[in-house]
Amino acid sequence: MTAFDIALYRPQIGQAEIEAVTQVLRSGWLSSGPVTEDFEGKYAAALGVGSAVAVSSGTAALHLAVLSLGLGPGDEVVLPSLNFVSAAASVALCGATPVFADIKGPHDLCLDPEDAARRITPRTRAIVVMHYGGYAADLTALARLARDHGIALIEDCAHAPVTDSAHGMLGTVGDIGCFSFFATKNLAMGEGGMVVARDPAVADRIRRLRSHALTVSAQQRHRGGPSLYDVDTLGLNYRPTEIGCALGRVQLDALPAGQLRRQDAVRMYREQLAPLPGITVPYADRPVEESAHHLFAVVLPEGTDREQLQDRLRAARIQSGVHYPPTHLFTAYQERAGGEECRLPVTEDVMARQLSLPLHPGIGKDEVQQVAEAVSAAWPTTP
């Protein structure tokens, strides 16, 4: 599946996952059903919340969050440009306007609360914050900002499943928490996601919206409930499959052990790469226990030819990546973001120099050592 000896991510699929999927196939129930419900309950318990809603993707989670708040034309949502494009797309697809804000800097790639505050207008209805790489953003400041302006705070926890922090369990501090279980994520279902909400009424709205807003679900009909149903609002098909949720349950159980292995790899990376001239390792001052470590990012010295460095890593059969090209610079968002008037100097500077190195629970110490040596060999001699 890859041309690299050491890939950015390697899925951790074992006999437990195979057996869980086999049981679903033998059950004859493939769409959302009892396995999905059980996965939702276990995930809610892990977060310490009353309920959770499993969905078909992290993008679906974000879209449902925006829909559940009733956002639409004329409304604005402040969010970081440094994120995968799905966050902005979820806002724009509802007719609302994504308003991009800057990050703190090369040491902290999360949304800057001060710049977010400058972007708030009377039309602002929500803030979306992404916990980059699994490190908590400044939720204390952002929650205060949202509260002071009477707007919602949506946590994009695509990088941070079941991750505790100084602010609390990520995804439960804001009004709505959105999780991704894409194939490369810490908890991997191939495709999938989860939504939690502080307000039970919002959570119920999300649950209904994910399945066409039917007043009677397929599970209820299968269990002998009413055959007829009503549809009192517009909904979508964002249901997950039983196969995916079977994978999710096993991966959830394996998450703590996988996190410990990620921490070991990050400790080694930090130690091995620290001597490189001009390197910045974001969040290096934070204890490894305070992150999900979805990514291991570095920021290269100014003037570094990133493509040339990546070419040298590629020649050593080591994959690297960029997370992420800033959304406000994409063609589809130039007009929505205000064109040339939308400048995010910190984001643009940092993301021209950001590089992601291989990190996953299966990466061994010898592989980390090999990556570190290859990066050191390719590193510019002067910052």
Description:
The protein is of the alpha/beta class. It folds into 2 domains: 15-250, Aspartate Aminotransferase, domain 2 (3-Layer(aba) Sandwich); 255-378, Aspartate Aminotransferase, domain 1. The chain is built from 13 helices and 11 strands. It has helices at 15-27, 34-47, 58-68, 86-92, 113-119, 139-149, 200-209, 218-222, 242-273, 306-315, 331-334, 345-351, 365-378, and strands at residues 53-55, 76-80, 97-101, 103-105, 108-111, 124-130, 152-156, 176-180, 193-197, 296-299, 354-357. The strands form 3 sheets. It has a 7-stranded mixed sheet with strand order 1-9-8-7-6-2-3. It has a two-stranded antiparallel sheet with strand order 4-5. Helix 6 (139-149) links the parallel strand 6 (124-130) and strand 7. The mean pLDDT is 94.
